[in-house]
Design a protein that fits this description.
Blueprint: H1 2-10, E1 18-19, H2 21-37, H3 56-62, E2 71-81, H4 88-98, H5 103-107, E3 114-121, E4 135-145
Parallel strand pairs: 1-3
Antiparallel strand pairs: 2-4, 3-4
Length: about 150
């Protein structure tokens, strides 16, 4: 995921993002919860865990990203798919070319400096439960000035 996203950025003259462990932890925990609970789907907010109420900001802070900042920013993008749509390439293609919810802008945000990404086997949508080649992807972005 990181390589595919950094390729999108560098092809457009933007700097590659640096992997950050706290951002990766936030992405990992969210994707694992999503596959376990399977709440993503039409008209559902994939960014707010219905069981814990966690949000991108609360997850990223809880993972220890950018404690006591002078300035900071964050973003999160999500994707789940199955069959031929459960691959990392399918996720990045959807974020860059299909989605109308600002995923492309988050990937290409020149102010972001760090990234955390996680690919979790399985679908986060009940419609994909038990489907072959299912994958759930969460990518977090950050900028921290301390």
């Amino acid at each position: 995921m990181v390589c595919l996203i950094n390729a999108q950025r560098t092809q457009r003259g933007l700097p590659a993002l640096t992997v950050n462990q706290a951002l990766t932890t936030a992405a990992q925990q969210h994707s694992a919860a999503a596959v376990q609970l399977k709440w993503w789907g039409p008209n559902q907010d994939s960014h707010r865990n219905p069981q814990t109420g966690s949000t991108p900001e609360s997850r990223i802070k809880a993972a220890g990203y950018c404690p006591n900042p002078r300035s900071w920013a964050f973003a999160e993008i999500t994707y789940t798919g199955w069959g031929g749509s459960g691959t990392p390439n399918a996720a990045v293609n959807w974020w860059m070319n299909v989605s109308t919810w600002g995923h492309r802008q988050r990937i290409l945000d020149p102010s972001m400096r760090e990234i955390g990404a996680w690919a979790q086997p399985g679908a986060a949508d009940r419609a994909g439960a038990g489907a072959s080649q299912a994958g759930t992807y969460v990518v977090t972005f950050g900028r921290c000035q301390q």
